[in-house]
Structure formats: C-alpha cells, structure tokens
C-alpha cells in the first residue's frame, strides 16, 4: 500500500479543475490527481465501475439497530458527492432506498447529477420515495424479468433474468447500463450491493471511507464468500489519503499485490 502524505483538500478551491477535466479533458490540479485521475482517465469503449462504502474502524456500516447517520463526517459526505458528479450513473440497492430515502443528486459540491439507478428485484421500492419527487435526472429501476412493479410512469424499467433466488448478475447490470450509453458508474451502496458487485468481479475500483469510530457490532461493509487461505484473499493495490480526520482507501481492484510471505 502507498500513502499519499499530503491531505486531500477539504474545500472546493481546485475541484473545478477535476470537473473540467471530466467534461473536456485538461489538467487536474495535482492534489486531486491520484484520487480522481483513474476515474476520469478510465479507458473509453468499456464500462468503468467504482464502489464506495463509508465505515467505522472496525468495518461496520451501522449499529445493530440500523443507525448509520452519521458514521462519516462532512468531508467524506462531500467526497461521495464528488464521486456522484464524476459518473454517468449512481447505483444503489433497494435496501438503501428503504432505509435512507436518498435523493442521489449532487448538492454539496459543484457538478452534474448522474442518472439514478435502483436494483429492486422484488418491486419493494416505495412509490413515495423522495427520489421520485426530484425530476432533475432520469431514474432507472432494474428488476427481474417477471413480477409486478408499481412505479411512476417517468421511471425507466429494465428487466433482467434472475438466478431463481432473486439475484441478478451484477455483470449483466453493468453491461445493460453500458448498452444504454452510461460508461462511468458508481455503486454507492449499501453493503449488500457493493459486496455483490465485488464478488462478481464487476468493480474496477473501491473507495473505502474509514471514520475514527469503533462501533463493535452491527452490519459489516464488505461481506464475501469465505476464503480458507489468506493467499486467496483479494489484495488490491491500494493508496490511502487523509481527508480531514478520516482516511480514504482507494483500491485498484484490477491490480493485485503479492501475498505477504514469511521471511
Ligand atoms: N455506509 C455506506 O456507505 C452506506 C451506503 C448506502 C447504504 N448504507 C446503509 O446500508 C443499509 C442497507 O444495506 P443493504 O445492504 O440492505 O442495502 P442495499 O445494498 O442498498 O440493498 C440490498 C438489496 O438490493 C437488492 N439488490 C442489490 N443488488 C442486487 C442484485 N445483484 N440482484 C438482486 N437484488 C439486488 C436486493 O433487494 P431484495 O432484498 O428485495 O432482494 C438486496 O437485498 C442501510 O442501513 C443504509 O443506511 C450505507
């Protein structure tokens, strides 16, 4: 792992350089280079998918009663909005819509809001979800190829085959969105959705935003199928960045480090 020793800016001073690089090319201010150039410079002609999760030091995303607001501080919330501003679509699972009722727009920093995508295989998304009353960007709901859905008429519905247990292949989701013209995608949460994309090898990068708090119990961030041997564990090439008093771990899932071997 490498550490970028200079802390990331916590103000918007040079953020405009990142936005204009994403829009029309050009140079990103050096302080943002390491974190955002991989997203902006991701090769054309194929999808680029980044996941994010905010979590405690002990890897929890909520208390055991489900309280999750707020584990991370305002700087990490701004980081999330910056990620939204750099992608074509933001994807969440229906669990997040039910728990948090997010709008999924960019409000805390300058930048365009992405198209909003909800994965909802069983039609659980409430018709009164807040995102439906905000028409600033399109909304896509991805569901299984059968089953009822009660959604406002302006919502675009994409049906994909389930696996018989209600799961939809994340790679199929990635490909269908790419086919609709969306190249950069952010899987914003929650933990089940990010984990499913990671398990399916459908993420290129992962930002873990770690706050200095120990919760001790409650749902974990990333959960994958058990690995018996440590040598089989994923060891992405990772860079850490200080953001206020929190740390952003930027994991490049397409590059692996060698396992640690005893001397
Ligand atoms: N810390 C963070 O960064 C962060 C971010 C977002 C949310 N959260 C928190 O996470 C909690 C919710 O967690 P969660 O993991 O339940 O939410 P989630 O990941 O948003 O939603 C999970 C649900 O989405 C559907 N889904 C997602 N991917 C699918 C796939 N490939 N195929 C089929 N269905 C798929 C399934 O719906 P069905 O259950 O209907 O099958 C699944 O149970 C809330 O407490 C929220 O506050 C934290």
UniProtKB/TrEMBL annotation:
Keywords: NADP, Oxidoreductase
Keyword check for Cell membrane: no
Pathway linked to the protein: Cofactor biosynthesis; riboflavin biosynthesis
Source domain of life: Bacteria
GO BP of this protein: riboflavin biosynthetic process
GO molecular function: 5-amino-6-(5-phosphoribosylamino)uracil reductase activity
Pfam name, any one: RibD_C
Stored InterPro entries: DHFR-like_dom_sf (IPR024072), RibDG_C (IPR002734), Riboflavin_Biosynth_HTPR (IPR050765)
Domain Bacterial bifunctional deaminase-reductase C-terminal: 47-225
Official protein name in the record: Riboflavin-specific deaminase-like protein
Organism: Amorphus orientalis
